[in-house]
Amino acid sequence: MMRMPRGDRLGLVLWALAMLAFGLLPVPEFWITLANYIGLYSLVALGLVLLTGVGGMTSFGQAAFVALGAYASAVLTTGCGASPWVGLLAGLALVVLAATALGAITLRLSGHYLPLGTIAWSLSLFYLFGNLETLRKFDGITGIPPIMLGGFELESGRHLYLLIWAIVGLGVLAVLNLLDSRPGRAIRALRGGLVMAESCGVPTTRAKLLAFVLAAVLAGLSGWLYAHLQRAVNPTPFGLNAGIGYLFMAVVGGVGHVWGALAGAALMTLLADWLQELLPRLLGQSGNFEVIVSGALLILLLQRAPGGLWPMVQRAGAALRGRLGSGERAQPAGLRNKALAQPLPRRAQPAPGAPVLQVKAARKTFGGLVAVNDVSFDLHAGEILGLIGPNGAGKSTMFNLVSGVLPLTAGEVHFLGRRVDGRPSRELARAGLARTFQHVRLLPQMSVIENVAIGAHLRGQRGWVAGVLRANRVEEASLFAEAQAQLERVGLGDAALREAGSLALGQQRILEIARALACDPVLLLLDEPAAGLRHQEKQALATLLRGLRAQGVSILLVEHDMDFVMGLVDRLVVMDFGTRICEGQPEAVRQDPRVIEAYLGGVE
Ligand SMILES: Nc1ncnc2c1ncn2[C@@H]1O[C@H](COP(=O)(O)OP(=O)(O)OP(=O)(O)O)[C@@H](O)[C@H]1O
User: Fold this and answer.
1) Does the CB atom of residue 369 touch ligand 1 within 6 A?
2) Could you give the domains of the chain?
3) Cβ proximity of 378 and 357 under 8 Å
C-alpha cells in the first residue's frame, strides 16, 4: 500500500470522490464537456510542471506531442481498423521516439535558445500535419472510432469523463511519486545548476531527457484521449497557440506545483468560456474578445501572484489549519518508511598518509592569461590542506581543475592513483571526490534532508519506473537514513524538514558539507567555506572540519580568510599570479618572506 502524508492522502481521496460524484450526477452535458477539456489540458500542463517548473526547461512545443498521440491513433484506427488501445501504444511509442530525438538535439541548447527550439519544432510538425496527403492535410481525419473498455463503447463525453479523469489522477500520482524519488530529485537538482547537480553525481543530460520524454508522454496521452473524444482530428488545435496556452496554464497554476497544473487548466478553461459568453453580450458584437481580456487578466494575476495560483491555495489552506509560517516541508517517502532502511555500503578509506590527490604541473591558460602556471602539490589521507593566495592568484581556477569543472591546458591530476584530469565531475564524485561551492548552491525550496539526499544520488540505483510505482521504498528509506545520519554528523539533525533556503548562510554552508558527505567521499573540496560567515559560525565550521579530519576525511580547502586557515589546516600551498610560491606548515608559511610580500603583508 502506497503511503503519503495523511493530509495529502485525505485530499487526494476527497478530490477523487468529488470528481467521481460530478461524473455520476445528472449535471448538464456542457459541464461534462468543460470538465473533459480541463482534464485533457491538465495532462499536458502536468508534463510542463515536470519539464518547466521542476526541470527549468521552457517548452512552447507540447502541442506537437498532443498531435502525435492524436494522429497516431486516428490513422491506425481509421486506416487499418486497429483498436484505439493499439493506437494508444503506437502513439506513445511514436511520442517517446520523437521526444528522444528532439530532446537529444534541443536540450543541448541553453538560455532562450531552448524555448526558441521548441517553437521551431512545434511549427515544423504543425505544417507537416497540415501538408501530408495521407493525413488529409488541413481537413484532417474523421470517423475515428470510440474507445472500447470492458466491452463497452465510450461513445459520449460523459462516458469518457471517468476515463479522462482516472488518467489525470494516475498522472498526478505518478508525477508526485516520481518527484519524491531518486530520479525525481535528479530532475529537481537541475534547478540548482548543472555544475552542482553533476558534482553530486547526477547525470544531468539523462535527467533532462527523462523530464522531456515524460512530459511528452503526458501530452501524447492527452492527444489520444482528444482524438477519441472528438472522433476527428485536424492540425488547427495543435498549433503554436495551443503550445503557448499550455504553458500559460502551467504558469498560472503555479509552475512548480503538481496540483497547479489542474488549477491552471481549470482556471484558463473556465475563464475563456465565461468571457466568451459574457463579452459579446456586453459589447453587443461578436469577436475573439475573450482572448484579449483573458490575456490582460492573466498579466494582472501574474503580477499579483508571480508564483501562480497553487501557492495561494496552499497558503490559504495553511492559514485555515493555523500552520502558516511553520517553514517545514512535508516528510519525503524515504523518511516515512524509516523502518525499511538498510545501511548503505561504504567505500574503503585509504590508510592515513596514503596519497589521495596529486597535482602535477597543472597549467591553465585563458587566451594569453596564465591563470595557473605549472602548479604541483600532493594531499595525503587524513590531512587538511589549505590553498591560499591573494585575489586573482588562481585558487578558484585550480579548484575547478581539480574538481573536473575546467579542463587542464597541460599537466595531470591523479586521484587515488588514477589519472582523472579531463574526466567529468560526475565521474570524480563516483570515485570519491565531493565538493562545496563558494556561492552556496542549494535548492532553497527543498527540505534540508532532500538536499542532502541529492548528494547520495550515486549510492542508489532505482530508476524512474520504480519511482513512479513506489517500488523503491527500501532504497529511499536507506538513502534518507544516510542523509539524516550526515545531518546529525554536521549538527543539523533537527533541521531535516526545514526549507533549505530558510537556514542562515553558515548553516547553508554546513548543509552543503553534509550533502558532499552523503556521497561517502574520500576527499572533500571546500571552496571558500568561511566566506560571509560570522565569527561564531567560522568557529563552528572549524570544529566541524577538525571532527571530520579525525574521522579520516581528507580535505582540500581554498580560502581567503587567513585566521580561519591558520588554526585549522595541516599544510598550506600559497599561490600568487598563478604560481605556487610556497608550501609548508602554517607557522612556516606565515614567516615566509615571499608570502608576506604577496599576501600576508597586508594582513599582519
Ligand atoms: N573563465 C575565465 N576566463 C578568463 N580569465 C579567467 C577566467 N577565470 C579566471 N580568470 C582569470 O584568472 C586569474 C585567476 O583567477 P581565479 O579566480 O582563479 O583567482 P582566485 O585566486 O580564485 O581569486 P579570488 O580569490 O578573487 O576568487 C584571474 O586573473 C582571473 O581574472
Assistant:
1) yes
2) 29-319 (1.10.3470), 355-602 (3.40.50.300)
3) yes
